[in-house]
């Protein structure tokens, strides 16, 4: 029995050794395969690298061409400053002394205007501060409503003024523009008056050149608070209530009556046709009157020896409105008759 144990152990050891050799051989084969895979991968990488290098060669040649073009452009850009350096850089060489002088003069004018506006703004601000306790400040809306109320009240109980515009068909465009400006100033003075007149424009058609000129020159003309009619002034009012104010009349105006309609001839005539309004009033048997310039004023010597009692309609209205408020003819005439007319008040001469 003891003699059989030894051989059986040696057989087992042999089998174990054989198993180890088989495992080693399998592991060796796997390592060999792994080495083969690595070698194949490295070979593929080398081949792809070679191909990439072969493909890069044409791109290098293209970049060389582009770089050459960029170099040429850079050379051109470097040459431009040299050409620009030949041009004058001082603006004074481009402008003459006369242009520079005019520019400096214009700058002085602009600076003076800015300074004047600033001073005027400060002056108005100071006046508002001084008068804040005397004259209460009201909004523009309140003042507009107050003016509208006064004008509508004058329509029923105030003095009436008629502007005869039936003679405008003989006037030039320049004369029509002047008349439109006079109407604007007259209406503006009437709005500021404490006791305004009610104004009526007669012989005034909406398709006339004067109406178009009034719309063009006078903002808000279509909303003026006054009467407008195409009829003649002699057919709108009773003839016994009319007084035509004309400088050719023999009778001086003594007072402003609430029951009388005063007519002003809307006529701007640079050719100075005499007695046009006076003859028109006589044709309709209407009373005439002139402003009492001769009674309260005297002629003053001037270089041109010019003396005229012909006034613009807005100047005549200023005289009537001032007299209606003050009942003082010298004060009223002083406001409406300028020294250019060649007349001054008697008191000023004495």
Automatic annotation (TrEMBL):
Alphabetically ordered keywords of this record: Coiled coil, Methyltransferase, S-adenosyl-L-methionine, Transferase
Any one GO cellular component localisation term in the record: nucleoplasm
CDD domains to which the protein is assigned, alphabetical: Trm10euk_B (cd18100)
InterPro entries registered for this protein in UniProt: MT_TRM10-typ, MT_TRM10-typ_sf, Trm10_B_MTase_dom, tRNA_m1G_MeTrfase_euk
Catalysed transformations (reactions): guanosine(9) in tRNA + S-adenosyl-L-methionine = N(1)-methylguanosine(9) in tRNA + S-adenosyl-L-homocysteine + H(+)
Region (Disordered) location: 1-63, 111-132
PANTHER family (alphabetical): TRNA (GUANINE-9-) METHYLTRANSFERASE, TRNA METHYLTRANSFERASE 10 HOMOLOG B
Entry protein name: tRNA methyltransferase 10 homolog B
Native source organism of the sequence: Myotis brandtii (Brandt's bat)
């Amino acid at each position: 029995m003891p003699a059989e144990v030894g051989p059986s152990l040696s057989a087992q050891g042999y089998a174990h050794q054989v198993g180890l050799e088989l495992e080693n051989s399998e592991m060796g084969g796997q390592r060999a395969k792994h080495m083969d895979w690595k070698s194949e991968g490295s070979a593929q990488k080398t081949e792809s690298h070679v191909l990439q290098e072969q493909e890069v060669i044409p791109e290098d040649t293209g970049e060389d061409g582009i770089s050459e073009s960029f170099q040429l452009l850079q050379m051109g850009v470097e040459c431009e400053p040299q050409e620009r350096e030949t041009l004058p850089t001082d603006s004074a060489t481009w402008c003459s002394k006369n242009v520079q002088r005019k520019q400096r003069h214009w700058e002085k004018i602009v600076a003076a205007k800015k300074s004047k506006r600033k001073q005027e703004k400060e002056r108005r601000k100071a006046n508002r501060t001084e008068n804040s306790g005397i004259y209460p400040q009201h909004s523009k809306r309140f003042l507009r409503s107050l003016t509208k109320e006064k004008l509508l009240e004058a329509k029923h109980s105030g003095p009436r003024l008629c502007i005869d515009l039936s003679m405008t068909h003989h006037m030039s465009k320049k004369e029509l523009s002047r008349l439109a400006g006079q109407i604007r100033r007259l209406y503006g003075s009437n709005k500021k008056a404490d006791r305004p007149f009610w104004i009526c424009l007669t012989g005034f058609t909406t398709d006339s050149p004067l109406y178009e000129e009034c719309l063009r020159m006078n903002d808000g003309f279509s909303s003026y608070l006054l009467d407008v009619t195409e009829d003649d002034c002699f057919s709108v009012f009773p003839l016994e209530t009319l007084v035509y104010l004309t400088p050719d009349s023999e009778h001086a105006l003594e007072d402003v009556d609430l029951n009388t309609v005063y007519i002003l001839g809307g006529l701007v005539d640079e050719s100075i046709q005499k007695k046009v309004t006076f003859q028109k009033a006589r044709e309709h048997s209407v009373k005439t009157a002139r402003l009492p310039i001769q009674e309260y004023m005297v002629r003053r010597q001037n270089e041109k020896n010019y003396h005229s009692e012909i006034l613009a309609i807005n100047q005549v209205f200023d005289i009537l409105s001032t007299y209606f408020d003050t009942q003082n003819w010298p004060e009223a005439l002083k406001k409406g008759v300028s020294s250019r007319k060649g007349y001054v008040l008697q008191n000023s001469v004495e």
